[in-house]
Structure formats: C-alpha cells, structure tokens
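Appendix C reproduces, verbatim, an entry submitted by the partner laboratory led by Prof. M.T., so that reviewers can inspect both the input and the predicted structure.
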Amino acid sequence: MNLLSKSLLGLVAAVLALAIGLVLLVPGIHVSSIPMILNVMLGTSVDTSSDTLLQRLRVAEGFSLSVYARGLTNPRMLYRASDRHLLVSSPRSGKVLLLIDSDENGVADEQRDLLEGLNRPHGLEIHGRWLYVAESNQIGRIVFDPERGSVSGSYQPLITGLTDDGNHWSKTLRFDQLGWLYVAMGSSCNVCEEADTRRATIMRYRADGSDGEVYASGLRNSVGMDFAPWDDSLYATDNGRDLLGDDYPPCELNRIEEGGFYGWPHLNVDNELDPDFGAGHEALQTSALPPVFKFPAHNAPLGIHFIRSPKPGPDFQRSALVALHGSWNRSQPDGFKVVSLHWNATGAISSRDFLWGFELDGDIVGLPVDVTRDGRGCFFVSDDYAGVIYRVSYGAGPVSAALDAGDSDPPVQRPTDPGLVAAGAEIYRQLPCADCHGTTALTPVPLNRLLQRYDLDSLADYFVTPTPPMPQFDLDQQQREQLAHYLISQAGRSPAGRSPAQSPAKR
C-alpha cells in the first residue's frame, strides 16, 4: 500500500457516514448538497509533489514554509518533547512516532516507532517524567526521557472504560499548571441523547487518573484544547453538527468554565434551539454558554496552539493558531487551512489566514490537523491527508523541496476470491453501505476509484479504525477481508460501482 492510499482512507469514511446520517434525517431539514463529496472526496486525485505544493501553499507575511517530515501514516496530534524530538500520534497504525532532528536543522532525519500496538492513539502530553497517551478507549502513560527520546518500564493504563463507539472516537489531552489532566471525549453521533454521560464533554482527573469528573458538557467534538498564556483560561475548539445546510451551524471556539454547559445537542451556536432536540429545552437558552468565536460551518477546527514566543512580533502577542481540517458536506468546500486568532484589548477575537492553499476550486492536497511550537519561535503543522509535518518559520526562507510524496501509482491488486466475494456481498447487504453507493442513493458515490487507492489488505485494515465521522462496524478479521474482496471486485464494474447486491432498501 502506498502513502497516498493510506492518506486518503479517512475521506472515504466520510462518504459512508453521510449516507447513515441521511437515513436519520427528520423531514423538513435542509441537507447540504452531496455533489461536493463526489468531487472532493472521491472525484479528484491528490498530487503532493513538490511542484504542486510550491505553487499552492501560502503562508502569512513574515513567515516561511518547509517540510519537517513526510511519508507518515495518518499523522494527527503533535507534542514537542525537546529541540530534537517531536512526538506524533498515528491512530491508524496504532503507534506513537518519534521524529528526530539530530542536527537541529529544521528537518527530521530519523523516524522511530516509540510505542506501538495501541488502540487508536490520539492525544499526547508530557507531565513530569511521564508521557501520557489518549487511546480511543483509555488513557495510559509510560516513563519517557525527552532528551534521549526513549521510554522505560511498562505502559500503564490509568483511565479505562472510555467508550469509543460511533462517530467521534478520538480523545485528546491537556495538563494545566496545577497538574490537572483534562480529557476531551467527543459525541457518539451527529446529534442525539447520549447513553454515556461522559460523551460530548471535557473531563478532569488528577495526574494518576483519580478523582475523575465531567468538567464541562454540551461539547459535541472538542478536539483541540489549550490554555491562554495571559490568564490560563482553557479554550477548546468544537465541531458543530451536520446536515442542517451549508452554513449552519457554525463551528465554535469556547472558553471552558468548570460546570459549564455549551448547548449540544439541544442548542446550536448562540443558544438557538436545535430543530431535532431543542423542543422542551427552552430553559437552557438562558444558562448555556455561547461560543467566544464562530468559525464558518463545517470548517472542522481541530488543534489549537496559543503563541507564547515573542519572535513573531507584537501583532501575535495575544494569538493562537487553529487547524481547520476542512468540510466534507458543503456544496462548496471550505476550511482546509490554518488560521491565526487575535484577541484585542476588549477580548474580541478576529481571524486571519496563516497557512492556506490546501484547497483550490475543490482540489484538495492536504488536511491540517494540529499545531504546536518547535522551541525556536516556529511551528509544526500535521497533515493527515498528505502524510506530512510542515514547519512554519519566522523570517524568509525557501519552501523545502522535500515535499515530494514519492510514488503515486495505484496499488498492485491480487485476484479476488469468489467465495470471499460472495460472503462480502452478504455483509454489504446487511450494512447501510448501499444507502450511499447503491442505485437508490440520492447521489450514488462511485466505487471505481478504490482500485487506484487500496489493495485488499489495506482496505480490510481500514475497517478496523475508520476515521470520524464514520461509525465503527463490529467486523472481525474474516468479515473485513470478505467485504474488501467484494468491494474491490465491484470497483471497476461501472462509474457508480453498481451491482445487483447494491439495491437493498434504505434503512
């Protein structure tokens, strides 16, 4: 499986998730148009060659762009361990990666698997002598030497039993100055009443995992958290719900207060009643906390990092960088960039483009995820689509030619097995796949491009760790292989990937 195939896995997940969401729609709700999914997620190829990115990517005046590392699998959250060591979570591979810049020249010259065999690791944080890792179902830690870049002793699960079913399985972490550990846990759905009251919250624990409590609630999917250096206030990004149109509701930045309720699923944005779950909850409109800043709808703000270095100058004294992962369900794609947020003397927040060009007229070459500092007044930005870690430096400098992503030829396909194809067809019938890919779908999503992006093994592996908002189906290894054989066998049959097995009624 080549790099581009792995990087594109997450986008296919969104296609299936949209189909599931449409089945649950209440009549009368306006749905964002689906053709963008065909164009952006499955209808275009991704060219991450150096020439393409040199022409496309732009950075704010006074900064320059280079590449710190490339060829990574699903790089998500970042943590700078030392001047030479950068930690990167890779949920799809089950690893925490260590990137090493041994000569400190701004380019990683070595990559190691620091931890492996984890359950979709996402958030990372160092506190004391410990490296904390947020897996999808638990928080664990291990002794870590940031200067040597080495772990010792055994990996210790601290907080177990976290649910990871449904859409937003990822967990992120942050420690405050007093040593409290904050854990963000997203919702299991687009909009619903949660059975697990820890979902759609930020929780707080002591460093040893004890005394856990829900610190703030009503936060649909707060992936990014950071503390403002001027007053230690905790801020969190939040992804607004889907399937209410192109421009509603906005995504949010919230100032997190202990005991605060932020609206979801009953309220949207400025405490407006949700059309599905708002009725009967009017009293919450006077008590819920509104966002302090609104991002455009479906921009998917993820990582946030407050700028603490004086190097960029006075204009960045009270500012933060936020990675906008980008929309998957707008008729016109939006987001796909890093913005800088600026707090003025009254606390009002404004936004400017900081790193952009990942999307141009529906052509996507990158999806920013997280931002962190590098210790020299510069910043790292992860991109889980191209498998790249960018480095944004203050001052002039060339864009690194190391952006070449290598071979982009389609994966080599081995023949499908007729028995496995037949078994996979039955699994396909039982799952809601045809709601998006079949002839009864509103706009059928083609399967023909699967041949360009996956082989049998990589497609089967993808079903283990689907990227939000796609739900995780309970399939064992044999079932995943059977489904992969079936989908690959159908991929070249027609533009819409249609077959007699793709016509079950919608659920």
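The chain has eight helices and 29 strands. Additional entries are available on request from the coordinating office.
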